[in-house]
Design a protein that fits this description.
The complex is a heterodimer of chains A (about 325) and B (about 190). Chain A has about 325 residues and is mainly α. Chain A is about 55% helix and about 5% strand. Among the domains of chain A are: about 60-215, Ribonuclease iii, N-terminal Endonuclease Domain, Chain A (Orthogonal Bundle); about 225-300, Double Stranded RNA Binding Domain, CATH 3.30.160. In chain A, strands 1-2-3 form a 3-stranded antiparallel β-sheet, covered by helices on one side. In chain B, the strands form 2 sheets. In chain B, strands 3-2-4-5 form a 4-stranded mixed β-sheet, with helices on one face. In chain B, strands 1-6 form a two-stranded parallel ribbon. The chains are: A mainly alpha (about 325), B alpha/beta (about 190). The interface of A and B includes residues 58, 71, 159 and 251 of A. Chain B: One of its GO terms (molecular function) is structural constituent of ribosome.
Amino acid sequence: MTSRLSALPVLFVRLQRPCPLVQNRGFKRWLRPTLQTLKKRKERMDPEPLPRRSSFTDWNYKSELFAFGKRLGEDLNLDVLRTAVTTREFVLNEIDQQKAVGIEIDIQMNDNSKMILEGSEIINNYSLNFLRSAFPKLPEEGVIAVQTYLTCEENLSTLAKNLGVADLMLTPEHPVEAVTLSNGFKALVAAISESSGIERANLFVRDFVMTQLVGKNINELWEVNDPLNLLSSILQRDGKQPFEPRIVAETGRNTILANYQVGLYVNKELIGLGCGESIKIATEVAARDALRELFDTTESMKPVNFDVESLPQTFANFSIQDWSSKNVEKLMKSSR
Amino acid sequence: MSNSHLLLLSGFPRAPLQNGIGRYVPQLKRMTIKFCKSSGDSKGTREFIESKLVDFAKENPGTVVYVKPRRHRAPCVQAEYLNGEEHHISLHNMSLEETTKWINLLPMRSGRPTNLRLRKYWHTDSPSIQGVWSPFTNRDPALNLAQFPMEEFSKRKNLTKTATEIILERWQEQKEKDSTAPVQEKTTS
């Protein structure tokens, strides 16, 4: 309605004055509704797809591959690296595209499906070895829990993303999914092993995967389900007397802010100390504290030493079922 | 600190991926220098490309350097970092020395957003050595056997002497003096 009314006088003016091309200064009252309309139209449409970095004019895949190897401080074979970042779906996609165009299928591309398995094995072997020698007193269940955390898809994909693998991945999906990235990282380890030997691949795993342990609390990665029973069975295996829980201190009994400090004593010797809002909880916390002391994973433990060149092939740590401090001491002496 | 800083992102200085503990990874992955081949405001940039760019690329093999000429537009350098951040620096009307300084700044950065307000210039994962404080930290173990209420704890601490006490003390002193003085006299006489 308004548009019609406003259109009329304009017509009238134009008829009156035959030379109307005069630049008009003043408030641009059309600007706001125009921008509003454009914004509304944009909102109604689907979100714009993120552009691939490789579709930009400043992109040279060969240079990118070269710089990638140099950035990691590795002397990589570029063909092997290219295979490591090529997914199976990408190769199949290429074949389909060539078929659709009608070209005779001539694709000499390898994909990384084999390298993923190889890399995964290298990562698993080295991380187990590293963790066993870094935490010789930690039960095997704990070692496996820490290893599972370090080599999980989320962790490896974050590593791959922050090393710049995402831009290089040859894959039809965009943005690149976490599974593809984590597979790419595994294949990258295999590529390093193929180009410069298994030792370099192990050092790569140490420098990038194992260092993620810095600032992490091992006891948060592995939770003991029944600390009281576990502690008493360990004491039994060591031939010690059962522990005796005693209240060391308490405040605010019969209030909502009650706090008890319970100590566990074996033969009048304190083995663990814990606080809690009830005596039961405090006893459990004290048992966890005693276990931490036994497994050498206390909060005040020395930081993990990452400056290790080569590791001996270690055997599995003791499982929870047959863990005892006598056994562990014996094992540590024999390995030295 | 002005009020506009309250809306800034804030954080602590952190190395990406524990960089440097295992090995050092340069964080600048890509750099594009955009310039014009003819206009005067790109003069410093052109000189940089002619005389210093090759050395820069040799010193930083982990960085891919692109050079992008475009007509009659101001020169700038675009840096892409491993964490996905992009930094732009305008090189408009800069001399060769200025251009070199700004471009050499890029590989030294970690890619942290430039608008991040640092809450502190340091960071530690374990801020306390003694551990979490509890009401029992550094508590006298003798208190375990105490029976409450205790008279000792009901007393006021750091009391200064009252005037009455001072007078009483002086009176006591005087009394002692007086009691000893006659004895001395007797012994002398």
